[in-house]
C-alpha cells in the first residue's frame, strides 16, 4: 500500500503516521489489489482535521474526513466512516471494473455567495476608481466594469469517469459527496447524479430534462 502523508499548519509526526497506518490496515483488508492512499492532517485554530483519499486499482475512489479537537480522534472517526461505506458496498467494489471508452473533461467552478460578492465588488470598485484616477491623470481612458457577472472563486478541470448510473451513485457515496459528474457508459454523454432531499437519487441528462433515478437511498 503506497501511503502519502501531508501535514498542514502542524509539524510532521512519526507517531501520527504510525497510528494512521495501523488504522488503515482495517481498510486494506477488504481489497486484494494494491491501494494508493493520501492522508492529510490539518490544524485550523482548535480543530484537527484528518482527511483520507484511497484509490483502488479498478479506478474507484474512497474519501472520508472528520474534524475534532484531537487529531487521533479525527483519524478514528474518519476511517470508521470510510469503513462503513466499504462494508456497505463490499461486493460491488470487489466486482467493479473500469468501463472502457471515451471520457470527457468538464470544468467545475465555485461561485462566491452573495455576501462575498458584495465585498469583492466593493474592492473592485475601489480598485476601478483608483485606476480611473490614474488613467485620467495620464489622459487615458478607463474601462467600465461589467455589472451583475458571477464572481468565480476558483475553477477545476476534472475527467469524468466512464461508468453506469448505479456505479456513479456508489462512487458518489464512497466519496461522501452530494453530487457526482460522470460519463454515462451507455450513452457516452456527461451525466450528473445527486442526492435528493427525500433520500432518493436524481439523474440529470444532457437532453435538457431532469430524470429522477428510481433508486431509493439505503
Describe this structure in words.
There is one protein chain. This protein is an alpha+beta fold. The protein contains five helices and eleven strands; from the N terminus they run βαβββααβαββαββββ. The strands form three sheets. A five-stranded mixed β-sheet has the order 7-8-9-10-11. Strand 9 (190-195) and strand 10 (201-204) form a beta hairpin. Helix 1 (14-28) runs parallel beside helix 2 (71-88). The longest helix has 24 residues, at 114-137. The relative contact order is 0.11. Mean pLDDT is 83; it is low at 209-214.
Structural class: alpha+beta
H-E string: EHEEEHHEHEEHEEEE
- The residue fraction in helices comes out at 25-40%
Strand order of the largest sheet: 7-8-9-10-11
Separation, N- and C-terminal Cα atoms? 30 Å
The best one-word shape is: globular
Beta-strand proportion = 25-35%
Annotation, overall tally of beta strands: 11
Main beta sheet: strand number and arrangement? 5 strands, mixed
Q: Return the average pLDDT rounded to an integer.
A: 83
Which stretches are poorly predicted, pLDDT < 50 over at least 5 residues? 209-214
What's the Cα radius of gyration? Answer: 23 Å
What's the number of helices?
Answer: 5
In short:
By secondary structure, the chain is α+β, with helices and mostly antiparallel strands.
Keywords, separated by commas or semicolons:
218 residues, alpha+beta, five-stranded mixed sheet, four-stranded mixed sheet
What is the fold's blueprint, element by element?
Blueprint (H helix, E strand, L loop, with lengths): L1 E7 L5 H15 L6 E10 L2 E10 L4 E8 L2 H18 L1 H6 L8 E8 L2 H24 L14 E9 L1 E2 L1 H10 L4 E6 L5 E6 L5 E4 L5 E4 L5
Helix pairs in contact: 1-2
Amino acid at each position: 500500500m503506497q501511503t502519502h502523508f501531508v501535514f498542514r499548519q502542524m509539524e510532521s509526526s512519526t507517531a501520527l503516521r504510525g497510528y494512521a497506518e495501523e488504522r488503515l490496515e482495517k481498510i486494506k483488508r477488504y481489497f486484494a489489489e494494491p491501494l494508493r492512499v493520501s492522508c492529510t492532517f490539518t490544524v485550523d485554530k482548535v480543530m484537527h482535521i484528518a482527511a483520507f483519499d484511497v484509490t483502488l486499482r479498478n479506478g474507484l475512489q474512497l474519501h472520508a474526513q472528520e474534524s475534532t479537537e484531537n487529531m487521533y480522534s479525527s483519524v478514528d472517526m474518519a476511517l470508521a466512516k470510510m469503513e462503513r461505506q466499504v462494508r456497505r458496498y463490499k461486493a460491488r467494489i470487489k466486482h467493479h471494473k473500469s468501463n472502457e471508452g471515451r471520457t470527457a473533461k468538464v470544468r467545475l467552478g465555485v461561485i462566491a455567495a452573495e455576501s462575498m460578492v458584495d465585498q469583492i465588488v466593493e474592492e473592485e470598485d475601489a480598485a476601478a476608481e483608483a485606476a480611473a484616477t490614474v488613467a485620467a491623470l495620464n489622459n487615458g481612458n478607463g474601462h467600465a466594469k461589467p455589472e451583475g457577472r458571477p464572481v468565480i472563486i476558483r475553477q477545476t478541470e476534472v475527467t469524468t469517469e466512464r461508468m453506469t448510473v448505479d456505479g456513479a451513485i456508489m462512487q458518489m457515496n464512497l466519496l461522501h459527496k452530494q453530487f457526482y459528474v460522470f460519463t454515462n457508459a451507455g450513452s457516452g454523454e456527461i451525466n450528473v447524479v445527486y442526492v435528493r432531499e427525500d433520500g432518493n437519487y436524481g439523474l440529470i441528462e444532457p437532453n435538457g430534462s431532469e430524470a429522477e433515478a428510481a433508486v431509493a437511498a439505503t
